[in-house]
Specification:
The protein is mainly alpha-helical and about 200 residues long. The chain has one domain. The longest helix is centred in the C-terminal third of the chain and has 25 residues. The N and C termini lie far apart (about 40 Å). The mean pLDDT is about 90.
Length: about 200
């Protein structure tokens, strides 16, 4: 069972959740290949390279269970990469992708602030719940919502099964990802005149 939990943690991490969210945006409005490159670089490639570097330097000892103090540098780099990706995507005039990038950057920023002030929060849950908030805003189909909820339950079980987080840390991550993403996405989608499922 532990191998299954580790597999879930590796596959469904915040970066892969971000890519899934971009896929939903792409289903609504076509996204140019260059936008995918910027997004994939900022949310997957560069963060994974940074993680590999942190492991090599001995700053991260366990890729399944990060200690709170080990998260500081990773969050800062994540914010830098995601904000940079959002800027380049903005220049490509891909509004839905840019809004999704901004939502991810905002959630990362809140994660960093909470972590820095001494509160360990589940980034996996924040990423999965953020995906649900995004789906609710742009594509509130029953099948998409059910799939996102099942994914959240699976990630919750995996992170708890690995003793990576307490129930409080997982629930806090869920609330953070869902409400920050939902509120910000609705606001920005409406501002840019893109249809939002809840407005």
């Amino acid at each position: 069972m532990q191998s299954f939990y580790r597999g879930i943690s590796y596959i469904f991490y915040p970066g892969s959740m971000a890519v899934l969210g971009l896929g939903f945006a792409h289903a609504k409005t076509p996204i140019a290949p260059s936008v995918w490159v910027f997004f994939f670089s900022g949310f997957v490639v560069l963060p994974l390279i940074s993680l590999a570097l942190f492991i090599k330097l001995g700053k991260v000892s366990d890729t399944f269970v990060f200690k709170r103090e080990q998260r500081h540098g990773l969050y800062v780099l994540g914010i830098i990469f995601s904000a940079t990706a959002a800027f380049f995507i903005f220049r490509e005039n891909a509004l839905a992708a840019m809004i999704w990038s901004i939502c991810n950057t905002a959630v990362l920023t809140f994660l960093y602030i909470l972590n820095y002030t001494g509160c360990k929060v589940s980034a996996h849950m924040a990423g999965a719940a953020g995906l649900l908030g995004w789906i609710l805003c742009i594509n509130a189909t029953e099948s998409a919502i059910i799939s996102a909820i099942l994914l959240i339950v699976m990630i919750y079980a995996a992170r708890k099964g690995l003793s990576a987080h307490s129930h409080f840390e997982l629930i806090l991550g869920f609330c953070l990802g869902l409400f920050v993403t939902f509120a910000l996405a609705c606001l920005l989608l409406t501002y840019y005149g893109i249809s939002c499922s809840f407005i």
